């Protein structure tokens, strides 16, 4: 009898263990599943080129062209070619397009004519933009002071060629820079702006 | 809405080191273009989504170099093939902080370039092959993330 009772107790314990393990497994499965999550990752909508990065090079370009004189091309038909090391998706970058249009306007305002094509022009104005862009620097002095500086630099190398002979008529280097700063105090007060 | 911050376009520092590197490579070409007519062909790979800009820039650079030395550009006596297997940069940032206080911070831009110039005669026979890999450097150093940038002379990079 005692041996039979012992066997019965053992089988009850074994059944209880089985139930317990069953629950442990179910609970583990639930915990495993609730810890998982489906995530869809994407970059947020883009805000494009920052305003600071647009107006500072435009101002620097104005400074660079302040000393430039295009009197040499008065009454002549000119074709403008612009080359730069800026990023692009097509043939011409946004910077090159902007520079070409700006220089075209400058030439027209000083009495030059813009040729309908390269082959129908007397002079080819070849512009290499060594630099047309910005460098941004952040200065941080823990909690007390924070500053963001946008330094725009325009460094142009101009060459004009006589289309027929291919000879160089004129060579000129033009440089302009603008520094735009925004200061914040205690990360709260500001921006205090400065432009040079 | 989680907007990505606005971008600043191609960095001015990067453009400057790349332009310096290209001009440095051009300076040492062992070819005298006086009185010669050279047909220019440029082939670049990689670089800013499209290589067309870089090819145009290098063609313009060579054109000026040939014409200013008394040569001419166009089909004729010589053909100059310029290959740019790579032109890019690496940016290294060094940051030394002690107990959350930034002590030293520096950023170094290094342009790496390789230019291969193949010179052929009118019949397409190779006369000379010249290879150069002149890099350029630009480093900004800041102390306490507030003082600077300081210009530090660096050894010339070799590629």
In short:
With 196 residues, chain A is of the alpha/beta class. Chain A has helices spanning 2-35, 51-66, 94-109; strands at residues 77-84, 113-114, 123-141, 145-162, 168-185, 189-195. The model of chain A has no long low-confidence stretch (mean pLDDT 89).
Largest sheet of chain A: 6 strands, mixed
CATH topology of the domain at 12-88 and 111-133 in chain B: Rossmann fold
Shape of chain A: elongated
According to DSSP, the number of beta strands of chain A is 6
- Rg result of chain A: 35 Å
Identify the biggest protein-protein contact and residues per side.
A-B, 53 and 45 residues
Q: What spatial form of chain B do the alpha-carbon principal axes imply?
A: elongated
Uncertain residue segments of chain A: none
- Which oligomeric form is depicted? heterodimer
Q: Helical region count of chain B? A: 2
Share of β-strand residues of chain A? 35-45%
What would the keywords be for this entry?
heterodimer; A: 196 residues; THUMP fold; 6-stranded mixed beta sheet; 3 helices; elongated; B: alpha/beta; Rossmann fold; 7-stranded mixed beta sheet
Task: Map the helices and strands.
The complex is a heterodimer of chains A (196) and B (159).
Chain A: H1 2-35, H2 51-66, E1 77-84, H3 94-109, E2 113-114, E3 123-141, E4 145-162, E5 168-185, E6 189-195
Parallel strand pairs in A: 1-2, 1-3
Antiparallel strand pairs in A: 3-4, 4-5, 5-6
Chain B: H1 12-26, E1 37-44, H2 52-68, E2 72-73, E3 78-98, E4 101-121, E5 126-132, E6 136-143, E7 147-150
């Amino acid at each position: 009898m005692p041996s039979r009772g012992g066997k019965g107790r053992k089988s009850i314990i074994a059944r209880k263990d089985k139930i317990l393990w069953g629950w442990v497994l179910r609970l583990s499965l639930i915990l495993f599943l609730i810890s998982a999550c489906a995530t869809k990752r994407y970059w947020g909508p883009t805000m494009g080129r920052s305003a600071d990065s647009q107006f500072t090079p435009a101002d620097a370009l104005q400074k660079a062209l302040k000393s430039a004189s295009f009197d040499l091309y008065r009454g002549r038909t000119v074709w403008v070619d612009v080359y730069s090391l800026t990023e692009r998706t097509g043939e011409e970058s946004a910077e090159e397009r902007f520079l070409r249009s700006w220089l075209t306007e400058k030439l027209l305002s000083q009495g030059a004519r813009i040729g309908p094509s390269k082959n129908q022009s007397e002079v080819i104005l070849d512009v290499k933009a060594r630099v047309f862009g910005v460098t941004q620097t952040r200065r941080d002095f823990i909690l007390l002071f924070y500053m963001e500086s946008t330094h725009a630099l325009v460094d142009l190398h101009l060459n004009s060629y006589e289309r027929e002979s291919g000879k160089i008529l004129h060579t000129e280097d033009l440089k302009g820079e603008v520094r735009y700063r925004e200061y914040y105090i205690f990360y709260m007060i500001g921006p205090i702006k400065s432009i040079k | 809405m989680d907007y990505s911050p606005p971008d600043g376009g191609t960095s001015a520092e990067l453009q400057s080191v790349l332009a310096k590197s290209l001009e440095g490579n051009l300076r040492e070409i062992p070819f005298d273009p006086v009185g010669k007519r050279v047909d220019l062909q440029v082939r670049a790979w990689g670089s800013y989504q499209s290589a067309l800009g870089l090819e145009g820039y290098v063609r313009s650079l060579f054109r000026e170099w040939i014409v200013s030395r008394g040569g001419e550009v166009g089909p004729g006596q010589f053909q100059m093939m310029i290959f740019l297997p790579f032109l890019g940069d690496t940016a290294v940032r060094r940051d030394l902080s002690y107990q959350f206080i930034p002590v030293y911070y520096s950023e170094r831009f290094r342009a790496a370039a390789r230019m291969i110039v193949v010179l052929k005669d009118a019949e397409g026979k190779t006369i000379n092959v010249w290879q150069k890999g002149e890099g350029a450097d630009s480093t900004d150093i800041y102390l306490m993330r507030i003082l600077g940038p300081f210009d530090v002379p660096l050894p010339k990079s070799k590629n």
